[in-house]
């Protein structure tokens, strides 16, 4: 079995651009086998130049991602590419704080 990532490891945009989802998907498999911690990704925080936001998914969402669910893959890709963008205004990509008034 491959060694799990160390506690400082985060999946990044650079990794995604270089290797696609494969490193994350391998991490998810190891996570469900009990071989490592929950996968965490790091994206830019567009509200704080040079800042980062760290994110993960619930176990149910990680399972969907690993199974190839297109919606989950798209959500991950948009989050890692566009990072944190503030409060949701609709029609934009990235990670947002959701307001009560936001609709699905």
Walkthrough of the structure:
This protein has helices spanning 13-19, 22-32, 59-66, 70-82, and strands at 41-45, 51-55, 84-87, 95-97. It is α+β, with helices and mostly antiparallel strands and 104 residues long. It has one domain (13-97). A two-stranded antiparallel ribbon has the order 1-2. Strand 1 and strand 2 (51-55) form a beta hairpin. The longest helix has 13 residues, at 70-82. The model is unreliable at 1-7 (pLDDT under 50).
The residue-averaged pLDDT reads: 82
Question: Which geometry do the CA atoms define?
Answer: globular
Radius of gyration: 14 Å
The percent of residues in helical segments reads 25-40%
Pick out its properties:
alpha+beta; two-stranded parallel sheet; 4 strands; disordered N terminus
What's the quick description here?
The protein has 104 residues and is α+β, with helices and mostly antiparallel strands.
């Amino acid at each position: 079995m491959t060694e799990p990532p160390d506690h400082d490891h985060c999946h990044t945009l650079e990794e995604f651009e270089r290797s696609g989802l494969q490193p994350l998907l391998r991490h998810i498999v190891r996570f469900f086998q009990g071989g490592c911690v929950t996968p965490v990704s790091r994206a830019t925080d567009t509200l704080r130049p040079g800042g980062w936001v760290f994110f993960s998914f619930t176990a149910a969402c990680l399972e969907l991602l690993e199974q190839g669910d297109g919606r989950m893959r798209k959500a991950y890709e948009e989050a890692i590419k566009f990072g944190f963008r503030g409060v949701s205004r609709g029609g934009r990509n990235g990670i947002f704080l959701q307001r009560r008034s936001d609709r699905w």
